[in-house]
Design brief:
Elements: H1 17-22, H2 34-45, E1 48-52, H3 59-69, E2 75-79, H4 83-93, E3 98-99, H5 105-113, E4 116-119, H6 122-130, E5 141-144, H7 155-166, E6 171-176, H8 188-196, E7 200-204, H9 209-217, E8 221-226, H10 231-254, H11 265-268, H12 273-281, H13 290-311, H14 314-324, H15 327-332, H16 340-351, H17 368-386, E9 397-401, H18 404-416, H19 418-428, H20 438-444, H21 447-454, E10 490-497, H22 509-515, E11 516-520, E12 534-539, H23 549-557, E13 561-564, H24 569-582, E14 591-596, H25 601-626, H26 633-644, H27 650-659, E15 665-669, H28 677-683, E16 687-691, E17 698-699, E18 704-710, H29 711-720, H30 722-733, E19 736-742, H31 764-777, E20 782-786, H32 789-799, H33 808-813, H34 817-822, H35 831-837, H36 848-854, H37 858-863, H38 866-873, H39 876-887, H40 903-916
Parallel strand pairs: 1-6, 1-7, 2-4, 2-5, 3-4, 5-6, 8-14, 9-12, 9-13, 13-14, 15-16, 18-19, 19-20
Antiparallel strand pairs: 10-11, 10-12, 15-17, 17-18
Helix pairs in contact: 2-3, 6-7, 9-24, 10-13, 10-16, 17-22, 18-19, 23-24, 28-32, 38-39
Length: about 900
């Protein structure tokens, strides 16, 4: 119980009659809990940000608020919602006033006027707000999910800013389940609250007193089993930790000037190690040496080996280590493969598969025997003792594990048995089996083994492959390769009575558990088997990382027994909440078997996650005491308007706004709203007009057009030739074409020979050569390098000072078929010839098409007189320049200013000076 339940002091809360009224409309699976009622009351009275602990989900609170506002008189918008969550809320609401986001703009306008609840993607919402398709003044409020992702440059903050400027009466209510995300960066909590325009922050950790009291009253029955690892597993774990400790010291020794306090062995074994590395090293990744990058890559590999050692079978670990033992890998890595600890690890992993005589005798999974005892002994005995006292007569067992691979292995273990499962894993991983131990030789001759091998199916619907087991050497290569989608996130099987048991028809559930054999349930018949003794194996999260997947499984299966094969904080709390929601007697509550390797990396990782979450909530509680939040909404909006005026005095602000008949505006392509730049441009006080334009991404003035490229997009466009076509169109239609290249603000790079822009297909020299050719071919093209979207927005603001504003109607037409027909350049003239003529003196963009219209080809142009050219160009000076360049020999200019003359001129000058003497 000490590991499963967390007991600490916290705050308190009360429930009122309003929350009790709101629970009357709840579905059949339970009313709101006490702390959920308090959340509902807090959000009902004020706009706020709710931060819950993992497993203490806010879905019921949000569902209650949506039910209360699901009416055509209200216009409610839900932002930043995943597809699975949207499907859940739609199914629970089940109302005609819940609308989907239409693809047609006119249909969306009609739907907005109908009111109700709208689940909209943020990109569509921003465009509709900018184009005034939504009656902003009529919006009742906005719900924001995953509030920890709301930074000032994201699309959600952009939409909230547009909403708040014209609607100060509507509400904003935000939710988040990631307290640790608010601790990254300086002042991240204050910035998120400021971007959400909320006035309160409500913190709900697991140790809050109301949550503590609610869950303690109906806690599940817990059996905690501390399973020791085998001596070989302990030896491998010790060797991996020793190697990781060596690599961490090497990284810190090579980079003494870089802050690497977060790169420790403890953090290396947690599941968020990649996030810690990203935060710590992304800004200096280009400055790290190749050896440092190898060391960090090897730390990730060792972490995966640690997970394989604890969670997976010995065959998978041995197959993985064989790849890292090869000479090619050792030569291209940091060299950890030559350490003594690595040799011991390789040898021990081999001895887990082969005995001292090199016979195939693999070691069972450390938790497999305990799982078998639970399914075949503990659960049947519990059914015999307490089955008659329970209302739920079914024996549904739910096994929860970490990943899809473990889920698949447990399914194979229960269906085939340990020996057949391990032999199947050896065949699948190409492990060479030269000879078998006596146990496997006897088993290969039995009919049960043959029956088990026939039952091996790599995927549902696959044809089983029969494998002859007479000669071990013939086993290699006989099993088909496993397809990519073979690992599922859930398996359901039932317990069927063995044929040898007489009178099986009269056996009860407990007898079936003792004498049964597992068999897979077809997908079609799963709903019929809910009342039968079934076993469901499922991961903590589905493939879509749906946080509500486990809750849906608990609600549909209603299991009587749960086996926690791996540790997971979120899943444990979801079980507590599920049981507290049902409010059952102690005899009917879920019985949880908690399998844990004590004093190992598994327990340490679990405790580390608990400690980090506790520290994050303590940080949020302390920040809430000192955080300054404006109580009035107009103060926040006015403060942001002051920031956008760039030093303009308050006394002159109103007069300046009245004198400005036309606000600064930037024409933006609709596809650019996937980036952060439109949001930052609008934050500087520039109006963003979203339209579909065919040339460029941004139009700043009637003469300035900008094509924005990221580093990866630049490389792809240069290789495919698309950038050449884009620059050609910009040069032809705009006087100042600009190619804007943005690189990652956390990864600055250098165009030097030692550094690589991309590790894909091209090198730095290729990129530089192609950029040089681009500038030579388009002399008018300007290339701008921007370190961040913030710098780009500031650059646009400075470029628009005292410049005319672009016309959105003209920008939408330029480059289209209609505009091409008007300028007589579509299918009438060769654009390559026009580009050549523009390089001749006397030919300009205004007269080039008139010249091409007057003469059929270049020969006719050469035969034309100067008078005929004057009629075509409508300029005598231009005609003279063009006729002379075509007919007269051109002499090199004499550079008098530099004192240099041609050879003949210097000779005549010396002769003249000699005659003069």
């Amino acid at each position: 119980m000490s590991t499963f339940v967390e007991d600490e002091a916290g705050g308190s809360g009360t429930a009122t009659a309003m929350a009790r009224d709101a629970t009357k409309e709840e579905s059949e699976d339970g009313a709101l809990l006490e702390y959920e009622r308090q959340m509902l009351i807090d959000l009902h009275h004020s706009d706020g940000l709710v931060i819950c602990a993992k497993g203490i989900h806010y879905n019921r609170v949000l569902l209650g608020l949506l039910r209360a506002l699901c009416d055509p008189a209200n216009l409610v918008i839900v932002m930043n919602c995943s597809e699975s969550e949207e499907k859940y809320y739609r199914g629970q609401l089940n109302s005609r006033h819940v609308h989907e986001s239409a693809t047609n703009a006119r249909e969306r306008e009609k739907m907005y006027l109908e009111g109700g609840i709208h689940f909209i993607t943020t990109r569509i919402l921003v465009v509709d707000l900018l184009k005034n398709r939504i009656p902003i003044e009529m919006i009742t409020g906005i719900f924001v999910l995953r509030a920890h992702m709301i930074i000032e440059s994201c699309q959600e903050a952009f939409a909230l800013r547009l909403y708040r400027r014209r609607n100060s009466e509507g509400f904003v209510k935000a939710f988040s389940n990631s307290a640790e995300s608010f601790t990254f960066g300086f002042g991240h909590v204050e910035r998120v609250v400021h971007n959400l325009y909320v006035s309160e922050m409500f913190v709900w950790p697991r140790f809050q007193s109301l949550i503590q009291t609610t869950l303690k009253r109906y806690e599940p029955v817990t059996v905690e089993l501390h399973i020791p690892m085998t001596q070989k597993m302990i030896s491998i774990q010790t060797n991996i930790l020793e190697i990781m400790n060596f690599l961490v010291k090497e990284v810190k020794r090579i980079n003494p000037n870089i802050d690497m306090q977060e790169i420790t062995v403890e953090n290396c074994v947690t599941k968020k190690f990649h996030k810690i590395l990203q935060l710590q090293l992304d800004t200096v990744w280009h400055q790290l040496s190749q050896q440092s990058k190898m060391l960090i890559s090897d730390l990730k590999i060792l972490r995966s080996l640690m997970i394989t050692t604890i969670y997976h079978d010995c065959i998978s670990l041995y197959a993985a280590l064989k790849r890292y033992k090869s000479s090619d890998y050792v030569m291209n890595s940091s060299g950890w493969g030559v350490l003594d600890a690595a040799d011991h690890m390789f040898e021990t992993s081999k001895r887990r598969v082969f005995n001292a005589d090199d016979e195939f005798e693999p070691e069972w999974g450390a938790k497999w025997r305990s799982l078998s005892d639970i399914l075949c002994v503990e659960i049947p005995n519990d059914i015999k003792l307490n089955g008659e006292l329970r209302r739920n007569k079914s024996a549904v067992v739910l096994i929860l594990c970490q990943d899809n691979k473990t889920c698949y292995q447990l399914n194979q273990y229960l269906m085939l048995g340990a020996e057949r499962c391990l032999l199947h894993m050896a065949l699948k991983n190409d492990v060479k089996v030269m000879k078998m131990s006596k146990k496997y030789q006897d088993m290969s001759e039995s009919k049960n083994m043959m029956h088990g091998m026939e039952a091996i199916q790599l995927s549902e619907g696959a044809v089983p492959t029969r494998v002859e087991l007479n000669d071990p050497e013939e086993l290699q290569g006989e099993v088909e390769e496993e397809p990519m989608n073979a690992y599922q996130d859930s398996y359901i099987m039932t317990m069927s009575v063995a044929e040898e048991v007489e009178g099986s028809e009269d056996l009860d559930v407990s007898t079936q558990m003792e004498t049964g054999r597992f068999s897979q349930i077809p997908t079609v018949d799963r709903q019929k088997c809910v009342t039968q003794p079934i076993v469901c194996i499922q991961t903590f999260k589905s493939n879509t990382s749906d946080p509500l997947s486990l809750e849906a499984t608990l609600r549909s299966l209603n299991p009587q027994y749960v086996v926690m094969f791996h540790c997971n904080v979120t899943a444990i709390r979801q079980l507590e909440v599920h049981e507290a929601r049902l409010r059952r007697d102690k005899e009917d509550r879920i019985k949880v078997f908690f399998l844990l390797h004590a004093e190992t990396i598994e327990e340490q990782s679990y405790l580390t996650n608990l400690r980090r979450e506790k520290q994050a909530f303590e940080h949020l509680i302390e920040t809430k005491k000192t955080m300054v939040i404006p109580r009035r909404l107009d103060e926040i909006v006015e403060q942001q308007m002051d920031d956008e005026d760039f030093g303009e005095s308050a006394s002159r602000r109103n007069a300046a706004q009245e004198s400005k008949k036309e606000r600064m505006k930037v024409i933006t392509d609709m596809r650019e709203f996937r980036s952060d730049l439109p949001c930052l441009i609008h934050k500087l006080g520039i109006e963003v007009i979203p339209i579909t334009i065919t040339i460029g991404d941004y139009v700043l003035t009637p003469e300035v057009c900008v094509e924005r490229k990221s580093i990866s997009d630049l490389i792809g466009s240069l290789n495919s030739g698309r950038l050449y076509n884009q620059c050609t169109q910009m040069v032809r239609n705009y006087a100042v074409p600009i190619l804007l290249i943005e690189f990652d603000q956390n990864r600055p790079f250098y165009l030097q020979d030692r550094y690589m822009i991309s590790n894909d297909t091209v090198s730095n020299s290729d990129i530089k050569q192609k950029l040089q050719l681009l500038t030579l071919h388009f002399p008018k093209l300007r290339i701008v390098w921007s370190p961040t979207p913030y710098a780009t927005a500031q650059l646009f603001y400075e470029m628009k000072q005292n410049k005319p504003e672009p016309d959105e109607k003209l920008c939408s037409v330029i480059g289209s078929d209609a505009h091409a027909a008007e300028t007589e350049v579509l299918d009438k003239f060769n654009m390559e010839i026009s580009d050549f003529l523009l390089r001749l003196p006397g030919v300009t963009e205004k007269n080039v098409f008139r010249l091409m219209k007057s003469f059929k080809d270049f020969k006719e142009l050469l035969r034309a007189s100067q008078k005929e050219l004057q009629e075509s160009l409508d300029s005598g000076e231009n005609a003279k320049l063009l006729w002379e360049i075509l007919h007269l020999p051109q002499k090199p200019k004499i550079e008098v200013s530099s004192g240099k003359f041609p050879a003949q001129s210097r000779f005549r000058n010396r002769k003249f000076q000699k005659g003069k003497q």
